[in-house]
């Protein structure tokens, strides 16, 4: 395995420093992909979160065991409001990615080798594959279940909390943002004052909520692989940042990796 990795590490594909117009190509490719996701988010509005009139007709038709409407006007507005909030937040995150790619600074240390180039892209792509799996929450927690509203609210709360952490972290990181393992600018303000990888923290929470909406054996396995990959990815990034910025070690000692480090004193 080690010999195989050492061999492919020599390929030009995994050495962006050798690419002609590396920064321009990477920005254009990333912006095209994110813009496509944002466009898809806009055109899927009628499916999720749906226009309010569509949502109202759907939930008004759900009946309780006694035969009456299970969801009243307040519950329907609550459900639609949650869906709309998640949709808006996800759209804003895509806009944040676009802003980051447009404004990020030049790399001080470029990614090198498979684990710094292809591996981060693979890990970042796992949630996209998860999101393409069938939505199956109603199969194990039907709309007519009394606990459906409470559980759905919990799931939406996870997605909103994780998404907000991700968005605020992204807006702070902006100039240093990268998916491949590169050192651009050392960011220690905002959420980074307390956590070294707040975007990953947001991802763990946000995609846990997404997992619960599409809970299959293979999506559960993918989430576990994603979480393990993010931990390894963070460790590789920290080695890169430590080599590029001598002050990173002091910053690392004062902050937690994914959660704040509370001093006992």
Please characterize this protein's 3D structure.
This protein is mostly helical and 265 residues long. The protein contains ten helices and no strands. The chain has a single domain (2-46, 87-254), classed as Four Helix Bundle (Hemerythrin (Met), subunit A) (Up-down Bundle). Helices cover 63% and strands 0% of the residues. The protein is elongated and about 65 Å long.
Shape: elongated
Rg, please? Answer: 21 Å
Low-confidence stretches: none
Distance between the first and last residues' Cα: 45 Å
Fraction of helical residues: 55-70%
What is the H-and-E element order?
HHHHHHHHHH
| Total helical elements | 10
What characterizes the major β-sheet? none
Broad CATH class: Mainly Alpha
Looking at the overall shape, the CATH architecture is Up-down Bundle
Structural class: mainly alpha
How is the CATH topology named? Four Helix Bundle (Hemerythrin (Met), subunit A)
In total, the number of domains comes to 1
Mean pLDDT: 92
The fraction of residues in strands falls at under 5%
The number of E-state strands comes to 0
How is the topology of this model organized?
Blueprint: H1 2-8, H2 22-43, H3 52-60, H4 73-103, H5 114-131, H6 137-140, H7 148-173, H8 198-213, H9 217-244, H10 248-254
